[in-house]
Structures are given as structure tokens and as C-alpha cells.
Amino acid sequence: MLETRRQDDVVALRRLDSAEFAFRAALGQGLTLEMAADLSLAEDPGFDVTTALRALLGEALLTGFTLAPEAPEEGDPR
């Protein structure tokens, strides 16, 4: 897979393997980190989610995130 990106007037092309592409595409579509990881690991069981997430952070490609509300513990009346 080929990733094409533009920042200002600079175009960057980068070859991605299928697992990394699945990870980035899933996050780009708004899926959760867990879902993106599951899709990537289905493509390649040896996929390193930590390294892929670190790469996204290093490339300043993450634009925002939300935290899911905490699930109440058993017996918690919330």
C-alpha cells in the first residue's frame, strides 16, 4: 500500500505493509484504537501496535482523541 500525504507544499509518499495500512485507515475512519489494533493484528499477528502508534505520534498525524466513559464496576449504582 502507498500512503500519500501533503504538508504545505511538500508531498510525501511512503510504502506501508497491509497491517500498518489497516491500522492507519481504521483510525482515520474514526474507529477506536482497540478496533484498529484488532484489524491490524488480523492482517499480521506480529504487528507491533506500540511502534505504529509511536510512529503516528512522531509524525504528528494524530489530531485528537476522546476517552470512553468508564464502565461502572459491578455493584456500582451509576
Task: List the topology elements.
Elements: E1 2-7, E2 10-15, H1 18-28, H2 33-43, H3 49-58
Antiparallel strand pairs: 1-2
Helix pairs in contact: 1-2
Summarize the structure in short.
By secondary structure, this protein is α+β, with helices and mostly antiparallel strands.
What amount of the residues lies in strands? Answer: 15-25%
Shape assignment: globular
Q: In total, how many beta strands?
A: 2
Mean pLDDT: 88
Q: Which series of helices and strands comes N to C?
A: EEHHH
Largest sheet, described in full?
A: 2 strands, antiparallel
Strands in their spatial order, largest beta sheet: 1-2
The low-confidence runs, each spanning 5 or more residues with pLDDT under 50, are none
**Distance between the ends:** 46 Å
How many helices? 3
Q: Could you tell me the radius of gyration in angstroms? A: 16 Å
The share of residues in helices is 40-55%
Kindly name the structural category. alpha+beta
3D architecture notes:
This protein has 78 residues and is α+β, with helices and mostly antiparallel strands. It has helices at 18-28, 33-43, 49-58; strands at 2-7, 10-15. Strands 1-2 form a two-stranded antiparallel ribbon. Strand 1 (2-7) and strand 2 (10-15) form a beta hairpin. Helix 1 runs antiparallel to helix 2. The protein is globular. The termini are far apart.
